[in-house]
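Propose amino acids for all 318 sites.
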């Protein structure tokens, strides 16, 4: 006689399968726990962001609609500051000077940094050489400005001594309307080109080597390979570099403050220097805040246009 063993019926009280609702609640609980831990880690950064960026930005926008100095309370005047800005010849001069500086700085810095990055990628394999290119960026900008200010001094600067030794006339690098902005741009190109080259070099490292191997098998020349492969695949990194350098160039201040102070006349008074002079030189914080808001809007538009039309979030590797 065969004995048949009856399996326990889950419905009748045997082992029950896990309920779907319990599984969902357990998963939700884990996600909430992970969220709390993540919030705990980002809390210090959020506190700093709110205290040193968000709150000052909101207050600056408010002050841009007021007449305000440190000695009194803000007085609401509406859009009067913005109306005055568009009729301010010094503002337009400062914007023209800033655009001149941005064009020189971005043009030379990007080209030189790209060349250095290609040399690091193809020729200079030594970590020591690559690290040496970054040394100027590790020095404080004020120190770099003071160093070049003395080296380019009209009377005792070593550069003018060398120029004079060759029988050429001395050049007032920081004291001439013609040379002030190109000199300031040259100083900042020297300081930042190593860091920019390092960013581009990182982008070159991300390009697969087999792409170049296929191009060489097809008989592509180095020039054709550069324009048809390297530059298209490097576009996202180049857009990032352009966005960062353009924003930084519009905000140049310390080099100008240490070397020329905005002179001679107004030849090197960039927009940041003009904002500083209005705020702390003339105590017109309402007008300076309006200038800052306009600069913020300009930088946001420039970054958006660069990312939109240069397609910085797309890669030809996809």
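Proposal:
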């Amino acid at each position: 006689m065969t004995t048949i063993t009856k399996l326990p019926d889950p419905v009748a009280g045997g082992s029950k399968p896990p309920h779907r609702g319990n599984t969902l609640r357990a998963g939700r609980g884990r996600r909430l726990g992970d969220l709390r831990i993540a919030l705990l880690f980002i809390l210090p950064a959020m506190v700093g962001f709110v205290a040193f960026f968000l709150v000052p930005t909101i207050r600056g926008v408010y002050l841009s609609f007021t007449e305000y100095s440190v000695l009194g309370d803000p007085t609401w005047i509406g859009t009067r500051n913005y109306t005055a800005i568009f009729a301010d010849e010094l503002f337009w001069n400062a914007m023209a000077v800033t655009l001149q500086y941005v064009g020189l700085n971005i043009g030379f810095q990007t080209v030189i940094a790209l060349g250095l990055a290609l040399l690091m990628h193809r020729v200079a394999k030594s970590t020591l050489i690559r690290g040496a290119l970054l040394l100027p960026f590790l020095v404080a900008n004020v120190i770099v400005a003071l160093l070049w200010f003395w080296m380019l001094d009209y009377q005792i600067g070593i550069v003018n001594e060398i120029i004079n030794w060759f029988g050429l006339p001395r050049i007032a690098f920081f004291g001439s309307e013609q040379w002030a902005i190109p000199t300031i741009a040259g100083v900042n190109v020297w300081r930042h080109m190593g860091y920019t080259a390092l960013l581009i070099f990182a982008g070159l490292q991300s390009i697969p080597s087999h792409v170049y191997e296929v191009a060489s098998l097809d008989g592509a020349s180095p020039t054709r390979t550069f324009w048809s492969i390297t530059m298209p695949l490097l576009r996202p990194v180049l857009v990032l570099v352009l966005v960062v350098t353009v924003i930084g160039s519009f905000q140049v201040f310390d080099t100008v403050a240490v070397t020329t102070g905005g002179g001679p006349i107004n030849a090197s008074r960039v927009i940041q220097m003009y904002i500083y002079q209005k705020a702390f030189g003339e105590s017109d914080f309402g007008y300076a805040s309006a200038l800052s808001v306009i600069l913020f809007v300009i930088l946001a538009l420039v970054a958006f246009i660069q990312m939109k039309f240069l397609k910085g979030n797309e890669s030809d590797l996809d």
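The chain has 14 helices and two strands. The first helix runs from residue 20 to 63.
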